[in-house]
């Protein structure tokens, strides 16, 4: 008969099975460098000084022990028979089917409540027989993956400023007279052109967003939100005393904080819709990531993520098989086939010597990897270097550098947002402006636009180079600083690039030794698959190198790729803290430095090994295999036949006689675009018509005179309206855009008066709405720089900035001259308990549970009425089962907070359970898993009870297994 465990045995067992709470739990087990060194003990031992032996012993003792995998009670299962078969299989083995995993067909998320939630090993039992079920094609128990948020940790010398105003947004406008101002991202200029992200939907993959934040509530989109951690539709973060879950709310404010509402900041895309996917506040598994990446891909345009594997300089990790599928499904089916846009922060491991090529998220061709720079263009201390970075934005730097202002938890603001976490949402906001300019661009078009428009400006880096296609590129900053104005201008006239092709070439499978202090050079000669039209790559986009390397200390390796044109990409730099002996097992490195170059020719892979002092240099690494994967197009992405033909036609058609001119902007009005004289267009002379007529089908907007090409700008006359002039080129459209009105008699789009966004004629008093920043005076249908006497414009809700030519203009949405405003609509002032209903044009009552609200529903409360408590996203008269009433710092109202896990009901936080969920027993006000034991010792159990060990989380399950059946 076995003896019961003692207290010391329990403590020892707990240390053996649980990782230290202060250390992250990486997914891949590691071996210490000390162990790698002792593997060569069979070699003749040189004479070694005693001091070196002591130092080596100390180093070995200080190495972290290999981290253990943490297994959860969640499984991913592939069952091709549909939801019904999946439910039956789940029931047969005691699982609960939580539904399809994101957009992955036939993949289901199973949960088993009777398996320990977190375990150091895979627990076997009757549930394990699911592996043998004939309906199950594949099953994977989910393992916890370490994912860290990419804000820079506070520097001890950091001086905190808490002044969240427009004047602090130095990275958007130059309003600070005491500092050298940089605003090369040209966001103001994009706003000038009328773009603010309208009708674009962005979601933040993070720890949740505060949906009722005054600067987010108006733009919050419930359909773009989900709580993957809690399996519900409320992305509100979990509040605690440390405000740990502030990250998502901060990122959301950068993108879509509401403009002109007297609170905090202005988002880059201040008219976009913003949502949040709460997925980092819990165990992050492959299922969790795949679900998050696949939520409503036909509704959400942009997914922004500022997190990734540990930036510790030793981790090599990336998306699992399900998350990889989710990326692929997103770019193929998202946005109705145009492709979801995934934006990723490049990483904050600079101080640890990390390299973002070891992060499989930023290293993916499907993500836009974004870097950071300080306000003066210096490299931030946290920045990682790699060849997959596409572009850069401003962020924080040293303690004396200014940081980023944004929204914060508890309806507050902060001016302390830092790291590459800042940069991904900024680029997401710029892409939202771009999608408003042209909603039909694809996920690859967006990457091409970033490559074409980003600029080195004042970014300081020693490795700036010009590749063979003429692009300036750096391992620190990619193609340079994002330029919002250039993005929207290019997008407006953009034609989608040709289809993506993939050409793969595998090296011969001959093992090559990597010798210390030498370079291994191996080559692959590629034809760009020119013999296969479906795979041919003539012009490059992404280049991927997949390697199988065996090595005693992975961090000693450096890897570079040299293109046929001579462009060198550093795929991997030395990593001081990477002591793993696992090498690279079919790891994929990616570079964008060859973008636009020709694919054909000899590619050279260069690997060098610089052994650290604590490694035996006689143990050689091996390159067993490498594969070159080229992504690109078979024809030039920008030189299409149609565009060249169109330019030729514009030169050949004679002008009807009016002189073209480009007037300078008038100082009396904030003209937002260069205005050009219009020319009448009545087709072409018959002598030219015969020469220019196109033999194929014309565009559906072309008139009876035919065309000289297939597109709308090749028409010789139009069915509906002609837009443009001889200098800029004409195109046929069905409706005239903003800034123009339809002249039906002449079938022309004619310009409105300066300042008018919509109009019925060219006169100054024929406006119907104004361009952004002007005041609409309805009495005379005019657009003014300020309201006339007797009319009110809320100047505190708008900010004036000076354009380069000296004209002041408003950068916020159109402001009306009236008494009160709601957005861009004049409204009466609504009392507490009511909101302005834009459709009914009156103040309507909130739900009876709300004291203030954004709409009539019970889920649209900003603040709860008296005697109501806030639970999740609604106000309730009393907390429901599984919640308790409590105070939250920073909130004036009481809230319902979740009981501890496994409690069905409780009286407060911690061990105050009063009722347990099924499968758990109540022991000392704590719910612990049911267990059967036959060896309970009464004396031992009395000791457990007297020391109240079962109340300590570490010992609960051990106490249960030994004492529960004894009734103690």
UniProtKB/TrEMBL annotation:
Q: Which InterPro entries does this entry report, sorted A to Z? A: Furin_repeat, Galactose-bd-like_sf, GF_recep_IV, Growth_fac_rcpt_cys_sf, Kexin/furin, P_dom, Peptidase_S8/S53_dom, Peptidase_S8/S53_dom_sf
Gene Ontology MF terms:
serine-type endopeptidase activity
One GO term of the cellular component aspect?
membrane
Q: Which protein family is named in the record?
A: Belongs to the peptidase S8 family.
Q: Which protein, by its recorded name, is this?
A: Proprotein convertase subtilisin/kexin type 6
Active site residues of this protein: 206 (charge relay system), 247 (charge relay system), 421 (charge relay system)
Where's the PLAC domain?
929-967
Locate the region Disordered: 225-247, 654-686
* Domain P/Homo B span(s) in chain numbering: 496-636
Region forming the signal peptide = none
Q: Where is the composition biased (Basic and acidic residues)?
A: 230-247
Keyword annotations: Cleavage on pair of basic residues, Glycoprotein, Hydrolase, Protease, Repeat, Serine protease, Signal, Zymogen
A Gene Ontology annotation in the biological process aspect, one of them, is:
peptide hormone processing
């Amino acid at each position: 008969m076995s003896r019961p465990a003692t207290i010391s045995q329990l403590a020892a067992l707990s240390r053996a099975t649980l990782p230290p709470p202060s250390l992250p739990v990486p997914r891949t087990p590691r071996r210490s460098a000390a162990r790698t060194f002792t593997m060569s003990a069979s070699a003749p031992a040189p004479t070694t000084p005693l001091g070196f032996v002591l130092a080596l012993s100390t180093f070995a003792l200080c190495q972290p022990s290999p981290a253990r995998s943490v297994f959860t009670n969640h499984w991913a299962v592939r069952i091709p028979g549909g939801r019904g078969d999946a439910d039956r299989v789940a029931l047969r083995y005691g699982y609960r089917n939580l539904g399809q995993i994101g957009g992955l067909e036939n993949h289901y998320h199973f949960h088993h409540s009777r398996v320990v939630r977190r375990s150091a090993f895979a627990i076997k039992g009757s549930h394990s027989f699911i592996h043998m079920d004939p309906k199950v094609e594949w099953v994977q128990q989910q393992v916890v993956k370490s994912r860290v948020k990419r804000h820079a940790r506070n520097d001890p010398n950091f001086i905190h400023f808490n002044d969240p105003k427009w004047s602090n947004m130095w990275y958007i406008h130059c309003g600070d007279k005491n500092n050298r101002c940089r605003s090369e991202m040209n966001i103001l200029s994009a706003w000038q052109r009328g773009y603010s992200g309208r009708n674009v939907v962005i979601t933040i993959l993070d720890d949740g967003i505060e949906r009722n934040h005054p600067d987010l509530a108006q733009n919050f989109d419930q359909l773009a939100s989900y709580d993957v951690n809690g399996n519900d539709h409320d992305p509100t973060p979990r509040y605690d005393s440390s405000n740990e879950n502030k990250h998502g709310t901060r990122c959301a404010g950068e993108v879509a904080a509401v403009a002109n509402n007297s609170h905090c900041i202005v988002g880059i895309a201040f008219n976009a819709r913003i949502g949040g996917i709460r997925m980092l506040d819990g165990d992050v598994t492959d299922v969790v990531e795949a679900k998050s990446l696949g939520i409503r891909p036909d509704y959400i345009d942009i997914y922004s993520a500022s997190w990734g594997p540990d930036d510790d300089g030793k981790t090599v990790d990336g998306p699992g098989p399900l998350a990889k599928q989710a990326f692929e499904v997103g770019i193929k089916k998202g946005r109705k086939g145009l492709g979801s846009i995934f934006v990723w922060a490049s990483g904050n491991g600079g101080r640890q010597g990390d390299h973002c090529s070891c992060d499989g998220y930023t290293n993916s061709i499907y993500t836009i990897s974004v870097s950071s720079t300080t306000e003066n263009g210096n490299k931030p201390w946290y920045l990682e270097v790699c060849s997959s970075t596409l572009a850069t934005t401003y962020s924080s730097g040293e303690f004396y550098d200014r940081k980023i202002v944004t929204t914060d938890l508890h309806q507050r603001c902060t001016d302390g947002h830092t790291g590459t976490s800042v940069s991904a949402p900024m680029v997401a906001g710029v892409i939202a402006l771009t999608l408003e300019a042209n909603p039909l661009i694809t996920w690859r078009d967006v990457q091409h636009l970033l490559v074409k428009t980003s600029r080195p400006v004042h970014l300081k880096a020693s490795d700036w180079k010009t590749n063979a296609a003429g692009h300036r590129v750096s391992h620190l900053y990619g193609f340079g600083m994002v330029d919002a104005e250039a993005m929207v201008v290019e997008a407006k006239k953009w034609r989608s690039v040709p289809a993506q092709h993939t050409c793969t070439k595998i090296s011969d499978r001959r093992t090559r030794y990597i010798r210390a202090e030498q370079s291994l050079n191996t080559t692959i000669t590629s034809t760009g698959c020119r013999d296969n039209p479906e795979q041919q790559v003539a012009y490059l986009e992404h280049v991927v190198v997949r390697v199988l390397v065996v090595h005693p200390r992975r961090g000693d390796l450096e890897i570079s790729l040299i293109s046929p044109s001579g462009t060198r990409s550093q795929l991997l730099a030395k990593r001081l803290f990477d002591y793993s002996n696992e090498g690279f097992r079919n790891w994929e490195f990616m570079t964008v430095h060859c973008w636009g170059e020709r694919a054909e020719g000899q590619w050279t892979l260069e690997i060098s090994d610089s052994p650290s002092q604590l490694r035996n240099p006689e143990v050689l690494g091996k390159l067993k295999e490498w594969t070159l994967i080229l992504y690109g197009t078979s024809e030039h992405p920008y030189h299409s036949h149609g565009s060249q033909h169109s330019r030729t036609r514009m030169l050949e058609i004679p002008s009807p006689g009016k002189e073209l001119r480009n007037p300078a902007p008038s100082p009396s009005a904030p003209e937002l675009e260069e205005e050009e004289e219009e020319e009448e267009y009545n087709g072409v002379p018959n002598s030219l018509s015969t020469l220019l007529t196109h033999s194929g089908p014309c565009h559906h907007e072309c008139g009876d005179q035919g065309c000289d090409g297939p597109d709308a700008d090749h028409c010789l006359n139009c069915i509906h309206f002609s837009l443009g002039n001889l200098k800029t080129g004409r195109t046929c459209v069905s409706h005239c855009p903003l800034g123009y009105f339809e002249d039906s008699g002449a079938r022309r789009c004619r310009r409105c008066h300066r300042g008018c966004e919509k109009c019925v004629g060219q006169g100054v008093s024929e406006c119907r709405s104004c361009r952004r920043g002007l005041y609409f005076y309805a009495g005379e249908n005019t657009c003014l720089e300020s309201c006339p006497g007797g009319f009110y414009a809320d100047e505190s809700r708008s900010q004036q900035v000076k354009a380069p030519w000296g004209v002041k203009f408003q950068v916020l949405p159109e402001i009306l001259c009236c008494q009160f405003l709601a957005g861009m609509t004049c409204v009466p002032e609504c009392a507490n308990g009511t909101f302005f209903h834009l459709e009914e044009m009156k103040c309507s009552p909130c739900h009876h549970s709300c004291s203030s609200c954004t709409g009539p529903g019970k889920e649209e409360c900003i603040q709860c009425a008296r005697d109501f408590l806030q639970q999740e996203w609604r106000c309730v008269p009393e907390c429901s089962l599984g919640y308790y009433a409590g105070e939250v710092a920073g909130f004036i109202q009481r809230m319902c907070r979740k009981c501890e896990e496994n409690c069905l009901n409780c009286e407060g936080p911690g061990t105050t359970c009063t009722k347990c969920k099924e499968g758990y027993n109540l022991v000392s006000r704590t719910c612990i898993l049911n267990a059967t034991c036959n060896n309970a010792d009464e004396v031992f159990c009395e000791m457990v009870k007297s020391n109240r060990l079962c109340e300590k989380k570490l010992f609960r399950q051990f106490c249960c297994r030994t004492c529960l059946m004894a009734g103690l």
